[in-house]
Amino acid sequence: xxxxxxxxxxxxxxxxxxxxxxxxxxxxxxxxxxxxxxxxxxxxxxxxxxxxxxxxxxxxxxxxxxxxxxxxxxxxxxxxxxxxxxxxxxxxxxxxxxxxxxxxxxxxxxxxxxxxxxxxxxxxxxxxxxxxxxxxxxxxxxxxxxxxxxxxxxxxxxxxxxxxxxxxxxxxxxxxxxxxxxxxxxxxxxxxxxxxxxxxxxxxxxxxxxxxxxxxxxxxxxxxxxxxxxxxxxxxxxxxxxxxxxxxxxxxxxxxxxxxxxxxxxxxxxxxxxxxxxxxxxxxxxxxxxxxxxxxxxxxxxxxxxxxxxxxxxxxxxxxxxxxxxxxxxxxxxxxxxxxxxxxxxxxxxxxxxxxxxxxxxxxxxxxxxxxxxxxxxxxxxxxxxxxxxxxxxxxxxxxxxxxxxxxxxxxxxxxxxxxxxxxxxxxxxxxxx
Length: 434
Ligand code: GLA
What we know:
The longest helix is centred in the first third of the chain and has 24 residues, at 52-75. The protein has helices at 3-12, 33-36, 52-75, 132-141, 167-177, 194-206, 218-221, 228-234, 248-265, 289-301, 317-323, 326-332; strands spanning 28-31, 103-106, 145-151, 181-185, 213-216, 237-239, 274-276, 306-308, 341-346, 350-361, 364-373, 379-383, 397-401, 407-411, 417-421, 425-433. It is an alpha/beta fold. The N and C termini lie far apart (47 Å). The protein has an 8-stranded parallel β-sheet with strand order 7-6-5-4-3-2-1-8. Helix 3 runs parallel beside helix 4, helix 5 crosses helix 6 (194-206) and helix 10 runs parallel beside helix 11. Strand 9 and strand 10 form a beta hairpin. The protein folds into 2 domains: 28-70 and 98-333, Aldolase class I (TIM Barrel); 341-433, Golgi alpha-mannosidase II (Immunoglobulin-like, Sandwich), CATH 2.60.40.1180. The chain is globular, with a radius of gyration of 21 Å.
């Protein structure tokens, strides 16, 4: 990081998020990597190879089913009558503000193995025959936003040309293609250069007229200690975990890591900048529905980006319902933007996480609470609103469990709420200040 950037960050304080007007709540979308990897075999596997057809198929699914379903699910609820939606113009007035899965992002393996004669990035011509700008037009035409993967180093992790040495040209190329989101990996880069190079590429993005969400993996590639002040001043999201894999142990390992790090992490998250625990694998092969509820509850309580990697053409209705649960999404997207804290660790396997959320009653905020069981035996976890950080509301708190929709009644700060948790399952509550 240059002296002037360091000075600016120091002057403006520790919680300064990148102020490019983007990611005011955690981005939501869909990404190729975990489900489709680097499948380039469009001859034998045309439906699943990394290609413009795959991207268009997922954009179609998101546009035709997912946006509409989110609208109906929310719009049907009586209390939200009269509140305007900000997402889609024609949604009318019977909906509350909710974000949805908007970014359609191509990960590694979209590139040609060389740049073109002018030194510009180019896609694989066989799998992206229409070109990257046309793909962006298609995604935008479906009311969605367009994301592209690259790498800050000399090559991507799969060995395609990286950004190194071309920051300005590549930023301009992405803008010309209509990109709204860039996932920037950190393979094939000197560790010592991560801060300066991410800041330099960020400066090129900031110089563009097009606003582009800047998603980094800088802390993941850095052994630490991490300068989250600098990271949050540079990137809108930052991965600090290993790659999620399609199995339960992978989700648990990320949760264990966040449990260790949460005290140092949480202060750096907020509107404009978020910790990224990697993709949602709900709807793939590895998680049961109960385990899917765990991933969704944790990601929401952490204010994490909700970026799915699954096959939206073949997802079960039950998995889709977890991903589309408007109340859980509303926790994730809460505009206070406060990352949840670990409040209770009961034995090895039961945890209670909580974060303050809107609405307020007077000065009191509401709370969201996730109760999680990682173990193979059923368990119970008891807590009070006060323990979750909800102690101020004069009229108490209205409790609701968001997966079942069950109304838990009105409670006072010292009252006990008991979560009965089946094996490897979660419950997530709102405690709404009255
Ligand atoms: C790294 C990243 C993954 C994915 C692959 C692509 O492993 O962490 O999320 O982008 O590279 O090669």
